[in-house]
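Q: My collaborator sent me two sequences in one message, no labels, and asked for predicted structures for both. Can we handle them in order? The first one she listed is below.
A: Yes, handling them in the order given. First sequence, followed by its structure tokens:
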Amino acid sequence: MILRTRPALTGENYSQQEAELTLGLLKAVDGDDMLTQRSAARDLGVALGLVNTYLKRCVKKGLIKVQQVPSNRYAYYLTPNGFAEKSRLTAEFLSQSLNLFRQAQNDYSELLDICEARGWSRIALYGASDLAEILILYARDYPVSVLGIVDDSAVGTSFGNLPVVEDVNALGSVDVHIVTDLNNPQPIYDGLTKTYPAERIMAPKLLEISTKPKQPAGSGK
């Protein structure tokens, strides 16, 4: 397998430092319902004023919503766009990391163990990426069949001798849907949940896809 080189964090025209701080802040908001600017600054190891600046940017971009709550403090929530951006930035960093293979190997082995235990043998992947290559490689050791890859940006091509299609229905009966996209994994996951039971949708932990109910879009206090 050859890891393909991707442009460095160009989705929102971030610099490397901006991308790291933005991702760190989005993770902090997602992981702590009681987050304050001071605690975020401490956890991220940056100045309080810098956290305030980046929070305002994220609110302006519609990534974070701020609401006033009792005790005269503000509560911070990720919007649907915020969840998607957190997942996208995480994937961008991973795609440039030599640790991608090791992390994906562990995550997909765990998912394939679950598939085997539940008797799910017919798998559809979503995203023609390095992650798809890793899963296809390790699936050979399990009693499963990877039917093909759903990716409208690569329709009509083949990937690892598998068909790439626009519509999963072209692959026939599918037991489980696994996210392998490195560009926009969160929107793909969210879209799948509108059609399939959550237990039939899987994604590696390394993508940090959120399964939480999404807050309504908006950024007003």
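Q: And the one she listed second?
A: Here it is, processed independently of the first:
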Amino acid sequence: MLIVGLAPAAHGGNRTGRIFTGDRSGDWLFGALHRTGYANQATSVSADDGLQLHDAYIAAAVRCAPPANKPTPDERDRCLPYLVRELALLERVRVIVVLGKFAYDATARVLATSGSPMLSPRPPFGHGVEVVTDRATVVGCYHPSQQNTFTGKLTESMLDDVFARARALSGD
């Protein structure tokens, strides 16, 4: 499974050197990955904290922390070749979980560039939306940002359900 996030957070992944590490979004993400068997522990506070992912890889649509945590489409497109290369190297990926619409749009571009475009017209992003391509099934998930978790737009059970579904789709 490939998880595609937005970008490293200034006080999280950008500071620690590992995406989603040391921030509240990561607390939610790694907790869910642990509960669904993708991680050996439920937290990640530093790049050397012993976290190990199993059958999962985390990437970002944008490679650096953007101002105000809001990357632009231009930044996404400049970083696109990195994500294209990561997906090419991850030959066994059968499921891509996208965290938010921005990651969904970036993944659509990556898949098109890689020769496995999404349906046209592409289904709109939504939590739990599944789009099958020749390369992988894309599963939409609300981003575990405080904006979504504090308001209840995303709950722990919703996040767990996405990763349980990803496991089922990948045949594990």
